[in-house]
Amino acid sequence: MGNHTIKSQTQVKILGVIFDSKASWRPYIQHIQKSCLSRINLIKTLSHTAWGAQTQMLLKIHKSLILSKIDYGASLISTTKPSHLRILESVHNSGIRLSIGAFRSNPISSILNIAGVPPLDIRWSELTFKIAARMARAPQCLHSSPNLIFDNYKKYDLDNILTTEISISPPWLISININLDLHQLPKKSTSSSQYRNLFMEILSSKQQHALIYTNASVVANRVGMAIIHGDTHIQWKLSNKCSIYTAEALAILKAIEFATNKVEANQIIILSDSLSSLMSIQNHWKPTDLARKILNAHTTASFAGKQISYMWIPGHCNIEGNELADKAAKQAHLANNPLTSPVFTYQDVKRIIAIEAQNQWENKWVAQTTKLHEIKRTTYPWPFPANISRKQETAITRLRIGHTYITHQHLMKGEEPPDCTQCGSPLTVKHILTECRSYENERRELNLPDQLADSLSPEQRNLTTTLKFLHNTGLLNKI
Question: Is the pLDDT of residue 149 over 60?
Fold first, then answer.
């Protein structure tokens, strides 16, 4: 082109991601593998089982230096061959194994469970869905619809996600009157009648104002909201993805729109028992997508000559308008002709994606037959007692996984599995902690639990007893 020769290249690097001509992603995966080796060596140095750093600190280092590198571009490279992905899984698993002090012979599912980190395929699926949601949230920034990019775009109904808006007014010009006087009273020591009397006292000075009550309800995965203005009751059925915050904030948004278009009075008070929704409106500088939409609606109402203020009122205190709005919101799904609003926020769908990823991991863990699964049925990480050494943490981890040096050194030496010299039974963690006659006196003196799951549970007293047992029997250095 002109006086310049355009060379043909088999790969190109864009924003740190290497694209190859065959779309195999292998060059990029090899690049990640190579760049992570020095980081793995850092964890290896810090993870000495006698004097190394604590497990949680090492896991934070792994997530910061290695997992963040692997996650970058995950939505792209997750489509590559399984054999290529195993390269990254090996790097990831090595970092986790070193961090928790496990052996190479340990089942991968067990070391990930101990660390509280899901498998890469589940993690990458979650990240991909969240990227799709972020793209749907800001469609004005895209040249093509996310629907054409992600195969599973419709799984979470992302067409109905609340999109971002540009603020109509700069934050320093926004002025909103939110009355939180009733919130200053301590709820535990303030009776319903006291709340109601003070509420009526406040309203006595605002008799020219029109009142609009808002409320929302989440019952049995059914979400509804309602606004009350005099004899006008309006109900909406909402998406079951909505949180209670989203539902309450949407009710305030609808109340502003109703006040702007349907209420004759120019002075209006919107009353809500959702403190979090009202507080989010006060954040003019970094509002959520829904709060910004409310601020824009408020500004539009101001341009139309409406003076809208807001007031927090306590729920379930026999304030008539609030009670009516609460009842209407709960009955929205049973009403004859309720309005529907299918929208939900990015925060709502992000929470749902995370929950489904966690459930997917839980279901995968339930199907495992490892020794760890026999005592730990959940994927949520178990904490260690406070102020214990790296050596003690490693011992607890290895006992929970069921692979210790004394019971599994035969795998490294290529020998036959050992038997207990005292009992003649196979030498296992369960045998040592609950059955072996050699340590019967120590177990009785310390009152060590009879069940292995109790000895190694996250209950601090049991773990402290187990560590004393290992110390008294001289087994701590053999684990």
Answer: no
**Residue 113 exposed, middle or buried by CB count within 10 Å (0-12, 13-18, 19+):** buried
Secondary structure class of 238 (helix, strand, coil): strand
74 pLDDT tier (thresholds 50, 70, 90): confident
Axis-axis angle for helices 275-282, 244-261 (nearest 10): 70
3-state secondary structure of 367: coil
- 474 φ/ψ angles, rounded to the nearest 5 degrees: 75, 20
Report the C-alpha gap between 407 and 417 in whole angstroms.
8
Which residues, 6 or more positions from 410, have their beta carbon under 8 angstroms from its beta carbon? 416, 417, 418
CA gap 425, 229 in Å, rounded: 78
pLDDT-derived band at 335, boundaries 50, 70, 90: confident
Q: Which residues are paired to 229 by β-bridges? A: 232
Distances from the Cα of 379 to the Cα of 41, 107, 108, 129, angstroms: 28, 15, 13, 21
- Residues with Cβ < 8 Å from 130, sequence gap 6 or more? 350, 353
Judged by DSSP in three states, 131 sits in helix
Q: Which backbone phi and psi does 179 adopt, to 5 degrees?
A: -90, 115
Report d(CA 340, CA 358) in Å as an integer.
30
Q: What is the rounded average pLDDT for all residues in the chain?
A: 90
Q: What is the pLDDT of residue 10?
A: 86
Cα separation of 473 and 36, whole Å? 40
Q: Are 268 and 308 in contact (CB under 8 A)?
A: yes
Relative orientation angle of helices 120-137 and 82-100, to the nearest 10 degrees: 110
**Mean pLDDT on 88-110:** 94
State the amino acid at position 261 in one-letter form. Answer: N
- Tens digits of per-residue pLDDT, 179-197? 999 998 888 888 888 999 9
pLDDT per residue as tens digits for the range 197-220: 999 999 888 888 999 999 999 988
Q: For residue 281, which amino acid is it? A: I
Beta-strand pair 17-20/11-14: antiparallel
d(CA 431, CA 435): 5
Q: Compute the C-alpha angle 146/148/153, nearest 5°.
A: 60
pTM of the model: 0.88
How many CB atoms neighbour CB 303 within 10 A? 10
